[in-house]
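request received
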Amino acid sequence: MEEKQYPFILFDLDGTLVDSVPDLAYCVDIAMQAVGLPPRGVDAVRCWVGNGIEKLMQRAVSGTMDEQPDERLFTPAYQAFLAAYKAHNAKRSTVYEGVIPALDWLTANGYKLACVTNKAEAFTLPLLAEKGLNHYFSVVVSGDTCAHKKPHPDPLLFALDKLGGKPSQALMIGDSKSDIHAARAAGCAVFALPYGYNHGEDIQLYYPDKVLDSLAELPAIVAPGQ
Ligand SMILES: O=C(O)COP(=O)(O)O
Ligand SMILES: [Mg+2]
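response:
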């Protein structure tokens, strides 16, 4: 039997496996209301998500991508968000089409899978469990597992170390430039999905090795002999 090119596959979570913006936006708007700011809505949150929950809330409170928020508003807004997201972590979020068949096929064919997300662990683990995705992953690396988040390579290298694989044997699959930069810095191949959250930019601009329309395409691409 031919060898697998990528026996180790690392999956991003938000915007790759799960469309989580409906819950995130709902909770951002609860937090905005708590501190007397206007609701931000789904479209703004879609642009802001991807660098962890603290960064999302800095963006929501400042109403901008990069400006620092007013600290007096940020702290209570962040607390309100944490409480809301604990209760509304998965209800409105959905698993993208093609995800389950791809994960079923990969696990049935002996691939070792990790989830590497910038979402904090307190929200990652319940979301994976709620969506029936947790059993696919031997390792889950969240935004607060390592000292650095993606685009730093450490979370990917940490996941590979736990899986027992090398970067040259690994494929990262994500939706944002952070996933692509982290994979390049770690020395892994990287495929991207165009349907997720890349701060409003086309993911092609960051030159992933491949762009897939859906994870349903993955088995045919990674199967040995392809
Ligand atoms: O920024 C987040 O909270 C999560 O983002 P990720 O799962 O796409 O890494
Ligand atoms: Mg993502």
